[in-house]
Structure formats: C-alpha cells, structure tokens
C-alpha cells in the first residue's frame, strides 16, 4: 500500500463521490490531488443537508476525513477549477494522468416561468442558496447574506428537498413567533418534537400563532412524489404500496410541521408587485399516460410575498466540457467517461444529477474500479500512456505546494479544524 505507481490523478470535488474515488485509487498506489472550491470538502453534506441531521452529517464528514487523509491523497481547498486553475491546465500544465469530475450538482434547475429570475432576492429564492444560508444562519459571523422568510410562502417542488424547504420555512416562522412571546427555542427543538408538540408543552396551539404558513405546489399527484423509490420491475401491488408510503411520508411531515400542499398545479407566470415577485399564476394539471398535462382554462392566482423554487439541482458546467441537456455529456454512465478525449471522467451527482449519498459513493467506487483495472491497469503492464515520469510527479507536487502556500494550508486536520463552523447543537 505504501508504494506509489506511476499515475497521478486529479479529482475535482472532495465530498461523497470525490473522496471515495480518491481513496479507492490511493489504496492501489495511485497518487491523487483533490481540489475543492470550498474551504471544507464536505459539499452538500455541510451546506445542503439541513442542519438538523446532526448524526448523519457527522458520520459522513468523518468518512470523508478518513479518506482524504490517506497518505497518497493531497487536498487543495479554496480552489475553483475554471477560476483559480483552468480546466485545460490540469492536463496540459499540471499533466495529470486522468481528471475526475466529482463536483456535484450545485446549480438549481431553473424554474420554467418566463422572467422569474429577475426577481431573485426580490420575493424569489432558489433552494440551494436558501438552504446554505439556513445551515449557517446561527453562526455569529455567517457570510451568506440574509434570506428573510415571509408568512404565506409558496414552494414549488415535490421531492424530499421540497419537504425540507417547507420544514425550514415553518420552523423559522414558528421560532420568530415564539421569540415574540418570549419563548426560547431552537430549530433542533422543533425538528425533534414537531411544531404542535413543542407548542403544546408551552400551552399553545399552532392556531395561536396566527400564521398562514407555507404551501408546497406540485405538478403531479401526491402518490407520484419521489419520496420513496420504486423498485425495478415493480408490479401493480408493489406500486400501490410505494404510493401509500409516499402519501404517509407527506402526511406525517405536514402534521408535524403544519405546512400546506397543493397537488396537480404547475406555475405558469409571475404575479408582479412593483419591483418584486408577488406570487405566481398556476394552472391545474391532470395525469395522462404518466405525464402531467395542463388543463385549459384552469388558471388560478396565488399571491405571495415569497416564492421558493425547489425543483432539483444540476451540475455547473465547466468551460470546454460538453453538456447534454442539464447534465454533462457522458459517453458511458457506467464508466463515467466524458465525451471529450480519453482522460476525463465524471462521478456521482455530476453524472446522475441526483443527491443520494449512497448512490454517489457506489458510482464513484464503480468508476474507480474500472479506471484501475481497465485504463491504468495498475496490476499489469498496461496504462503506459497514462504513466508519469519522476519529473512530472515533482512538477505536480510543486504546483500543489504553491497553491497550499497561497491559501495558507499546512495540513488537513489543522485546516479542517480551523474552518469547521460553529455547530448549532454546541451553542
């Protein structure tokens, strides 16, 4: 395990898929440099997984730490590919054997309502920056700006992330209402017990808060919400069970966090209030052959002081790399090979567009195994076209050291400890 091969690989992104691929390669003697645009390598585990998931966050971040401290892995934080290091330079100047894209899906899928983006932060938010702000809004020196939450918020979406956004809105509104009554509480208190139970312990009911709450609008039916997976080859009986589970998940969440839900409704156009978004015009839909079809003459207005779009996340494109629709153009999803030369591969969310931790790790492991056995052929005589000389190794390590010096990085553990934010549960 201690010897190095003649291969040096760049991994862009240090979270679930990036750290897993780096570890698998490092275990077989391949040297790896992991670049991450953030100070910490945890990606959406830190900034996208709502902060009440304390145990899951700590578990996953611990796994990432153990992988990125492998002796064959070098971590370079605060380095954005395309800004601090150009993508072509990774192959031409640095000279890596391979480049693996594990940069996740950080960009919100645009809400398909003409002109709505001009109202960003003026009555309109996208999910990713909103949840990032929420995860850090308890920190004394958080730098994400402010995201005021309004009573009567509209949330457009229908997945688990949309339910999380609704929970955030309802808990923030409830915390403010409680503070106005001199009652101290935290997000963790409300999430653990649920809003009605916490209020009951203080002799209150939700109605006493005089809140309208938020409402999630979904273009399909409740049973279509991707809250529980459908097994491959599921028969009608199994599909009915999945639908029942989905309905129960939503019902439990609504009961515990007091938000509204409107199915079979698709946003059509904005309602404008001066220079702000003042709500949305929706249109009713019906399901035909598995598709949501708009019903003519069924429009209805929903005025609202705030709209949050939560319809999914997609990878941010890198200059020079091909895209197909909203995702990277991948020649083979199984191997992660990008349709651009023979040295560029992609992992996890960058390929699938889904934010599932387990799926990302498994995909990274599969791609790493393919690269080790079929491309680099680390246990054989192949892979010669990807092997580097000692001078090339030294050149990569010199460039890495220069970046480390520029950002003041002196070691993984010290860096992570210095940049880990204040945790709500420790305040």
Layout of SSEs?
Layout: E1 8-12, H1 16-27, E2 31-35, H2 44-47, H3 54-68, E3 73-76, H4 87-92, E4 98-101, E5 107-108, E6 124-126, H5 127-136, E7 154-157, H6 160-180, H7 187-193, H8 195-200, E8 215-217, H9 236-257, E9 260-262, E10 265-273, E11 276-288, E12 291-303, E13 307-310, E14 313-314, E15 323-324, E16 327-328, E17 330-332, E18 337-338, E19 344-346, H10 349-352, H11 357-375, H12 390-407, H13 412-419
Parallel strand pairs: 1-2, 1-4, 2-3, 4-19, 6-13, 7-8, 7-13, 8-9
Antiparallel strand pairs: 5-14, 10-11, 11-12, 15-16, 17-18
Supply database-style keywords.
single chain, 427 residues, alpha/beta, Rossmann fold, FAD/NAD(P)-binding domain, 2 domains, five-stranded parallel sheet, 13 helices, 19 strands, globular
Give the integer mean of the pLDDT values. Answer: 94
> What percent of residues are in strands?
15-25%
Spatial ordering of strands, largest sheet: 3-2-1-4-19
- What is the CATH C level class of the largest domain, in words? Alpha Beta
Structural class computed from helices and strand pairing = alpha/beta
Q: How many domains, in number, for the residues?
A: 2
SS field, number of helical segments: 13
| Overall shape | globular
| Cα-atom radius of gyration | 24 Å
Question: Can you tell me the CATH superfamily of the largest domain?
Answer: NAD(P)-binding Rossmann-like Domain
- Poorly predicted runs are none
Specify the helix fraction band: 25-40%
Total strands: the figure is 19
CATH architecture of the largest domain: 3-Layer(aba) Sandwich
């Amino acid at each position: 395990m201690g010897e190095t091969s003649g291969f040096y690989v760049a991994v862009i992104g240090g979270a679930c898929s990036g750290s897993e691929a780096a570890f698998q390669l490092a275990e077989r003697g391949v040297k790896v440099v992991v670049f991450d645009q953030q100070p910490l390598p945890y990606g959406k585990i830190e900034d996208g997984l709502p902060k009440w998931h304390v145990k899951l966050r700590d578990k996953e971040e611990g796994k990432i730490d153990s992988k990125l401290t492998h002796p064959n892995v070098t971590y370079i934080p605060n380095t954005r590919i395309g800004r601090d290091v150009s993508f072509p330079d990774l192959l031409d100047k640095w000279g890596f054997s391979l480049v693996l894209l594990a940069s996740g899906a950080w960009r919100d899928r645009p809400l398909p309502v003409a002109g709505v983006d001009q109202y960003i932060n003026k009555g309109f938010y996208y999910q990713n920056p909103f949840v990032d702000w929420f995860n850090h809004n308890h920190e004394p020196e958080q730098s994400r700006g402010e995201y005021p939450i309004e009573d009567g918020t509209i949330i457009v979406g229908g997945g688990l992330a949309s339910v999380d956004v609704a929970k955030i809105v309802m808990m923030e509104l409830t915390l403010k209402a409680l503070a106005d009554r001199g009652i101290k509480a935290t997000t963790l208190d409300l999430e653990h017990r649920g809003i009605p139970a916490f209020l009951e312990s203080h002799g209150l009911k939700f109605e006493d808060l005089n809140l309208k709450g938020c409402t999630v609008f979904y273009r399909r039916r409740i049973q279509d919400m991707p809250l529980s997976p459908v097994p491959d080859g599921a028969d009608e009986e199994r599909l009915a069970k999945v639908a029942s589970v989905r309905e129960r998940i939503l019902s439990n969440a609504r009961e515990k966090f007091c938000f509204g839900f409107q199915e079979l409704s698709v946003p059509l156009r904005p309602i404008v209030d001066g220079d702000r978004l003042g709500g949305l015009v929706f249109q009713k839909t019906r399901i035909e052959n598995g598709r949501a079809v708009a019903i003519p003459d069924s429009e209805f207005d929903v005025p609202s002081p705030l709209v949050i779009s939560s319809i999914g996340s997609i990878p941010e494109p890198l200059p020079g790399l091909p895209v197909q629709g909203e995702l990277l153009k991948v020649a083979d999803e199984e191997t992660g090979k990008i349709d651009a030369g023979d040295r560029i591969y992609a992992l996890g969310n960058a390929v699938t567009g889904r934010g599932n931790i387990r799926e990302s790790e498994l995909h990274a492991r599969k791609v790493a195994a393919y690269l080790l056995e079929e491309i680099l052929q680390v246990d054989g005589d192949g892979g010669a076209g990807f092997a580097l000389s000692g001078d090339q190794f030294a050149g990569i390590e010199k460039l890495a050291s220069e970046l480390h010096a520029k950002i003041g990085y002196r070691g993984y553990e010290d860096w992570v400890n210095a940049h880990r934010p204040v945790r709500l549960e420790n305040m």
